[in-house]
Amino acid sequence: MVARLSRILPFPSAVPLAGLFLMLLSGCVTAPQQTCSIQSARVDLATHYTLVRDKLAFGPLPRGFLAQADLYRIGVNRSRIHPCEYLKIRKELYLRRNPDAALDFTETRKFYAQDGTLIASHTEDLSSQLRASGFYSATTVLPIPRSAPAGNYLIVSRLSFRRRGERRSMPLARAEETFTIVPRSTGAPAALRWR
Q1: Which residues are CB-contacts of 36 (< 8 A; sequence separation ≥ 6)?
Q2: Beta strands 103-113 and 118-125, pairing class
Q3: For residue 190, which phi and psi values (nearest 5 degrees)?
Q4: 124-164 per-position pLDDT tens digit
Q5: Rounded to two decimals, what is the model's pTM?
Q6: Mind giving me the DSSP string for 141-184?
Q7: Of 109, 112, 113, nearest to 151 (Cα)?
Q8: DSSP letter at 77?
Q9: Contact, 54 vs 134, CB < 8 A?
């Protein structure tokens, strides 16, 4: 058989190339699947607010209030994303708080599917980050798993506070954003998809 191939293919280096081509055609070799890098990477999923400006453009906190969020919004870096990619959630908060009150702040993010099904919920204690009045910003990373179904999703973020030692918390602000997970491509060029 090698003699026949050498008559057909005049260059000896072409023999391995012809063998690979024949294996691809027979279905013995397939293109390697792309790995989902987010499944093996260690990523900090916590929210880290940074005080950007401590100047109060909205004036002092109204009398009798413990805290007020004059601005609270979230956004995403991409409105359409594939599985195995990272979605970055940007947050902005303009907080006025009573400097003499011992307050605990929590933020809860909930993710909903298009039909309203709750997919996931995550609550974080932000008390050590929101110690003063001012304008804060943060970015949180959300890994989109390989198994995430395509469709539209809603992120709802709620900020609340309570006096330290009390059980009952008060809602402070709410924000929401949508994004779409598009079907994951196989990663193999169309010419290599034999099955």
Answers
A1: 83, 84, 145, 146
A2: antiparallel
A3: -55, -35
A4: 999 999 999 999 999 999 999 888 899 999 999 999 999 99
A5: 0.72
A6: EEE--TTPPSEEEEEEEEEEEEETT-S--EEEEEEEEEEEEPPP
A7: 113
A8: S
A9: yes
Give ∠ CA 77-68-124 in degrees, rounded to 5.
Answer: 55
DSSP string, 80-145: EE-TTSEEEEEEEEEEEE-TTS-EEEEEEEEEEETTS-EEEEEEEE-TTT--SSEEEEEEEEEE--
In angstroms, the CA 70 to CA 62 distance is 12
- Whole-angstrom Cα distance, residue 154 to residue 158? 13
At 186, list the tokens: 């196989």
Q: In this structure, are residues 43 and 149 in contact, taking their beta carbons and an 8 Å threshold?
A: no
Which of 26, 24, 33 has its CA nearest to residue 191?
Answer: 24
Q: Token pair for residue 64?
A: 């009798």
Whose structure tokens read 């890098």? 37
Of residues 51, 94, 58, 92, the one with CA closest to residue 73? 92
**C-alpha R_g of the chain:** 27
Distance CA 103, CA 126 (A): 10
